[in-house]
User: What shape does this take?
Amino acid sequence: MTTDSSAQNLGTPGATPLTKRLDRFAYWSDDCIPLPGLGARIGLDPVVGLVPVWGDIITAAVSCYVPYEAYRVGAPPSLLFKMLVVIAVDALSGFIPVAGDLIDAVFKANKVNVQMLKNHLGA
Assistant: This one.
């Protein structure tokens, strides 16, 4: 198995089905691919983001899943706004040639949003 903390949280006692699902989503979008020799990981988000323009649009749309789930569980508008700002920063950085792709690989927007929701829920 992996040593990624989000993957380990999937089996945490007391974790709700929602937090398990969101942890899994964040893992696949931000951390599922190890980079040999670097000790770092990237997810599908920066890989899809390599496709000019459309990749960033698609990943931003898919990233809206976390704020949607937050809305469904009654998160306050201020939290939803913060989550959408994180997604916007991630998406807009992707429009910068080359550097944007590197920023997208380092800045893990979905993990940040999932953690904000978990903090709100007390999970």
